[in-house]
Amino acid sequence: MMMRSAQNGPENARPTNQDRPGSIVLFLFAALVFVPSIAHAGTGADRDQAVSFNQDVSPILSKHCLECHGPDANQRKAGLRLDLFEPATSPRKAKPAAILPGDPAASPLIRRITSDDPDQRMPPPGNGTSLSEADIATLKAWIGQGASYERHWAFQPVVDPELPKVTNRAWPSRPMDRFVLAKLEQAGLEPAKRADRRTLIRRAYLDLIGLPPTPGEVAAFLEDTSPHAWPRVVEKLLALPAYGERWGRHWLDVVRYADSNGSDENHAYPHAHHYRNYVINALNRDLPYDKFLHEQIAGDLLANRNNREQIASALTATGFLSIGTKILAEQDPVKKRADIIDEQIDTFGRAILGLTLACARCHDHKFDPIPSRDYYSLAGILHSTDLNDRPLETSTFLAKKKAFEKQTGLLKTRLKAAEKKLAGTVDLENRIQWQAEQFDRGNVIVDNENYGKNIGIISDPGGQKNFAEYDLTVKTPGLFQLELRYAAQKSRPGRIVMDGQAVIDNAIAKTTGGWLPEHQQWHAEGLLRVADGRFTLRVESEPMMSHIDQMRLTPLKGDSKMLDTLNAEIASLNRQLAKKQKAEPKPAMVMSVKEGKVRNVKLHVRGSHRELGDTIPRGAPAGFGFKGIPEVPSGQSGRLQLANWLTHNEHPLTARVIVNRIWRWHFGRGIVASPNNFGTKGQRPTHPGLLDHLSRQFMRCGWSLKSLHREILNSSTYRMASSVRNAVAMKRDPGNRLMWKREMRRMEAEVFRDNLLQLSGRLRWAMGGGPMAVKSQDPSPADLANNQKFYEQSDRRSVYLPVVRSNVYDLLTLLDFPNAAESVGSRVTTTVPTQALMMMNGSFLMDESRRVAKNWPPHPGEELEQSLNRLYQAVLTRSPTPDELQWAARFLEDYSAEDTDPNRTKSWDALCHTLVMSNDFIHVW
Amino acid sequence: MLERMCLGFGGVALHGMMPRRANAATTVATRSPLAPQVPHVPPRAKRVIFLFMHGGPSHVDLFDYKPRLYKEHDKPLPFKEREVQFANRANIMKPPWDFRRVGASGHWMSELWEHLPGVADDLCVIQSVCETNVAHGGACMKIHCGDEAFLRPSMGAWVSYGLGTENNNLPGFITICPTTLHGGVNNFGAAFLPSVHQGVPLGAPGYPNTLAKDARFNYMTNDSLSPRQQKLQLNLLRKLHEQNAAHSAINEALEARIQSFELAFRMQTEAPEVTDLSGESEITRKLYGMDDANTENFGQMCLLARRFAEKGVRFIQVSHAHSLPFNNEQWDQHSHLEKGHSINVRQIDKPITGLIRDLKRLGMLEDTLVLWGGEFGRTPTAQAGSGERGRDHHPDGFTVWMAGGGVQGGLRYGATDEYGYHAIEDRMTIHDLHATLLHILGLDHTRLTFEHAGRDYRLTDVYGEPATRILA
Prior knowledge:
The structure holds 2 protein chains of 2 kinds. In chain A, α20 (654-667) packs across α21 (688-700) and α24 packs across α28. Among the domains of chain A are: 53-149, no CATH class; 426-557, Sandwich (Jelly Rolls), CATH 2.60.120; 843-924, no CATH class. Chain A is built from 32 helices and 17 strands. By secondary structure, chain A is α+β, with helices and mostly antiparallel strands. A 5-stranded antiparallel β-sheet of chain A has the order 3-6-11-8-9, with no helix packed on it. A 4-stranded antiparallel β-sheet of chain A has the order 2-12-7-10. In chain A, strands 1-13 form a two-stranded antiparallel ribbon. The longest helix of chain A is centred in the middle third of the chain and has 29 residues, at 395-423. By secondary structure, chain B is α/β, with parallel strands linked by helices. Chain B folds into 2 domains: 45-209 and 282-470, Alkaline Phosphatase, subunit A (3-Layer(aba) Sandwich), CATH 3.40.720.10; 220-275. Helix content of chain B is 31%, strand content 16%. In chain B, the strands form 6 sheets. In chain B, strands 1, 5, 6, 7, 8, 9, 13, 14 and 17 form a 9-stranded mixed β-sheet that branches. A two-stranded antiparallel ribbon of chain B has the order 2-11. Chain B has a two-stranded antiparallel sheet with strand order 3-4. In chain B, α6 packs antiparallel against α7 (252-275) and α9 packs parallel to α10.
C-alpha cells in the first residue's frame, strides 16, 4: 500500500509516519497527486501518556499482526491470537503467554518484535509489513500500562457524551461546536474566522442543492442583516425539491445505483430509474432514515400500509437489493446465485453497517469479529428472497385499468357469446391436422433437437421474411376454424395467407411463457372460408417466427349464412377489441424483491458452492456483539426481522454510519474517514464524542436527516472560512484533522455540470425522469457517439442522466464520478491531464461556455468593467478584483489580436470558457 | 514551468526505490503513482504486448495436435464432458487442416499458418491453460482481470500500478481499438486502483470495434481555438490561481490542477506524433501486411503497438475482435469453423509475425513480452446442430503463446490429454498465467497488492504460481 489519500480516498487512507507534505509530481495522463499530511493525533503515543487500546493499539495490531494472529482460526499461526485479552495473555500449550500485562520487557511479544534475529523477528521480514519505532513504543507502553483490551470503538453502544468544557464560550453556535472547539483548544489552536457572507451563501447553495445562488438571491441575503438570515436560507434550501436531487445522488453512490448491469453483459435496467426517483422523493419528504432502510430491505413486506402509493413506494425501495451488477452469462446457476447474493451482502454491509461482511464469504473475517457463520446467516435470508420485476399498482393505475376494463368488458362479453355459439358448430370428425414441419414450400428451419425435441417445430433461421406453405385438400368447402400450436416467450406476430390473399392479420401473436416443448399451446387464429377443396395456406412472419409445432382446420357445420354472419361478427369484435387493447394501461415496473423459497443455507467452505459445511440458521450478524435476531419464523425470509434489527435504537452502527456519511458529504471528510469501513481496519474517529453526540441526537429527532442538516449548517464549525492563514495550525495539524478551518473542495462532477447548465441558461428543472435513452449493451462506436450526443444535449440535472455502468458519461467519469459497481462512501478527487483536455477541447465545455457568454453579454455602450462585474457575479458570486479587471481586459485584447479566423471562438466566449475552467469556479470555498 | 516538472519528476524517481507491496514501510513522502518502480525480482521484460484473440481460438485446430481426433472423427468422446456447458455438444470432430512440425524446435502448427512458422523458434507455446469460465463474459473478465464474477483491475492496470511508466507523455496502459463486448471497458479498467492506471483506448471502444485507420485519442484537438489563443487562456487561468494563492494558504491541489492544464497543452502536440505512421517505411508497412486488404487493419494495430512499446508504454493490448458475417465474435466459431478460422488466421498471421520480426530487428524483443491468446479454447467435439460445423467454448485446456521477454523460444510447456480436453501436464491456470506474466516483469504476484474494502487485493486473488521453467 503505497498510495493513499488523494488517490485512493479515505477508505484507504491510513495515517502513517511517511505522510508529510510532499512535492507535487506531474506526468501525462496521470493523476497529479496531492497527499495531504495528516495529524498524528493518537498515533505514536507518548510513553508517559495513557495509551488507548482503540485509538493507538488496535490499528497497529490490525495492520501488522491479525492476518496471522486474528479471528480467523484457519489462518492462525502458532495458535496465537492477539485480538482478545484472554488468548493473548494466557499460556498456549508449552509456550508462555505472548503478553505479560505490566511487564513489557518480559513479554515474548515485545522480544519478538524487537529481535535482531530474522528468524525470530515479527512480523516476519519479507511479508511486506514492519513495525515502526513509534509502533513498538506504543505497544511497550500499552503492555506496561496493563495491556487492557477494549471492544472495538464502533461496536460499543452509542452513549450520549457530556458536552465538553470550552474556554471560548462565544464561539459555539450549536452544542456540536463544543466537541470541535474542545479538541482545538486542547491542541492550542483557534478556529478560523467565519467565512464572508458571499462565500457562505454560495457554499450553502452548492452543498444543499448543488446549484448556485442567482445574483438576486445573493443580494437579498446580503441585505438581510437579521440573525435569522442564515437559518432562513438553510430552511429555504432544505425545502426545495433540488435538495433531494442533490442529496439523493449522495445516497445513490452508496447503493451503487446504475441503469445497466455493467458486467460481462451490459444490458439496460429499464426500470431502475424508479428507485432513483424514490430516493430523491424520500429525501425531499424527509422520510425518517429508519423507515428509509426498512423500505429498502423489506418494503415488500411492510404491513399496515394504508394506501397504494405507499405500497408502491416501499416496493420500489427494494431496488436497493436488486440493482447490483450481476454476471449474467454465468452458466452455472448455483454459482450465479451465490455471486449475486455476495454482491448484495457486500453492498448491505458497507452501505448500512460500514462493515466489510463480504470478506467472510471464504473464511472468518481476518480483522473484524465477523465469522463466516454470520455471512451465511445473512446469505440464508437472501437465498430466501427472489429478485424480480414487479408492477406498481398505484391507485392512478388501478383507476385507469378499471375504466379500461369497463370499456372492453362489453366487447368481451359479446365475443364470448359469439364464440360459444361457434363452438357448438365445430365438426370434430372432419378436422384435418398436420405437423408444421411438413410444409410444401418454405424458408424456415426445422428443429427436432433443441426447441423441437421430440415434437419437431418450425422457426426462423435468423431474421428474415419467414414463410411456410401447405397445399391442402378438404372434402367439403365451407367455413373452417384455423388453430396453430406454438410456443413463444415473446410475441412474434405474423399473418395467414390463403391462395395469395391475406386472410388473418396479427396471427401467431400470443405468448405462452417460453420457447420449449412444454410451452406449446393451441391457439385459435380465426375463421377461413374455403371455396375450393384444394388451396394453399401460407404462414408468414417477419423477422422472427414463433416455434410452431402443429396446425389444424376444423369445419363448422350449419346454415352457411348464419355461419357467415357469426364469422363476420367475431371478426368485427376481435378487431374492435384489438384496437382498444392497444390503449391498455400498463403499470410501471420496478426492480424489486419478493419472498422466495425459504431456506437456510450451508456454510460454503472457502467460499465454494461445491464444498458445503454446516447449515446456518438465517439471521443477522452477531459476532460484533450486538444481539442478533431471535429466530426467523419458518415461513419468512427474515428481511423484516433484519430491517427491525438494523434500526433498533441500541444498534451501535446504523446511526453512526449514516451520521458520519452526512458529515462526510458536508465537510469532505468523515469524522471516520473511511465511511464504508467502521471495522478495525477502518479509520478511527477524529472526534468520537461528536459522532456519538450527533448519532444520539439523530435518533432522538426520529432519524430525521433534515434535522441533522439543520444542526450542522447552523453550527459555527460549518461556517468557518476556508482561505485562512494560520501558520501554527498548519504546522501542528496540516491535514486539518481537528477542523481548525473549513476545507476547500472541488465540485463533484454533477455539481460542475449542473452549474454550467444553470449559467448557460439551459438547465430544465423538472423532477423525475424516465428510463435510459442510451445504448448500453454491445454499443458500436456510432452508438457511443449517439450516447455522447444525448448526454451533451441533455438539459436535465445530472442525477437524471442514465448511469451506464462501466461506461458512464465521460464528463462525469473524468471528474471522479464513482464506479457504480460497488458501494462508494467517499468519492476521490483526482487531477489528471485528461480532465484538462476535456475542459479545454471538449465540445460540451466549448458549447456551454458560448451559451454562458450569450447569457451574460457585454451590453452595448457600457463600460467593460460593468460587463465583467455582471459576469463575475453570475459565475463566481463575487465582483472581479481590480487585478482581475485588468487581466480580463488584457486577455480580451490579446485574444482578439489572434482572432484572424471568423469561424473561431470569439474573445468574450473564450473569457467565459476560461472562467468556468478556473479554480475559483470549480472549487467550493 | 516545464523545467520545474522535469526536476520534480527526477527528484521523485530517486525516491522510488521501493517495490510496491502490502504495507511496505517506506520513507517516501509523496510521488507520482506512475513513477517508475523498482521491481521485486530481476525483470526479464519491461513491457507487454497482449494480442487478444476475442471469441476463443481453437487450440486443437491451430497449435495442439491431437491425432486421435482424426482417428476417432465422429465418434463420441470416451469420457464424460464437463458438467456446465455453454452449448450442446456432439461427437469428436477432426480438424479441417493437417498439422506439421515447424522450425528447429519442431512446434506443431496447423497448415493454416503460413507466416508464423518463420518465427516458431521464438515462441514459447503454453498448451495447458485452464480453469476459466465457459461463457465469453466470465472468461474475458478472467483473462483480463483475474476474476470471472467481480469487477477487478485489469492486468494492464496492475502492471502500470506495479511498474509505473517510462514515459510521462503517454499512458502506462493503452488498448488499441477495444471491444465493448463481454465485460467491455471493464477489461481494461482500473476498478479500485487509482484511475490513472486504467487502459486508455486508442479509438473509441465499440462493437464492432473501431478500425485502426480511424483510431484517435479523445479530446486531443480543438478546431475553435488556435494554440496561441489556448495559451492565452492558460495564462489567465494561472494568474487567477496565483491571486488566490497570494491571499490564502497555498493549496497544492489548486497548483496541481493548473499544472495539469499546462501539461495537457503540451500533450496535445506530442501524443499524436506517436500515432502518425507516415514516417514508417514501405518495407515496414509490408512487413506488417499493411499493403494487403486482409491484413491492413490488424497490421496497422500491431505497428501502432510497436510504436507505443518503443515510447515506453508498459502494457499495450491489441484486440482482434471484429465480428464475422456468421459469428458475433471474431474467433467464436460455433459453426463455420473452417471458414471462420481461415479468415481469422489470414488476418493476423502476417501482422503478428511481422511484429515479432520487427521487435527483433529493433532489439526490443528481449525486453518486450508478446502474449498471444483468447479467453478460452474450443472443444475437440463438434457443436450439436446441423449446417457448417463448429466447436463450443472450451475452458479446461487450451493454448496461449509468449514470445520475447526472456522466455524460452521454441519451448512447449504443458499439455492436454490425448483429445485436447483437459490440461494434464504443468497445468497453467489463469492465475498462474498472470503470476508468470508479473514474474517476467519482475513483480512478485503475492506482493503486488492494493488495499481496498478492508483487504489486500491481488491480480491473482489468493492463487497462482509463476511458471519459472519457461524462462530462458
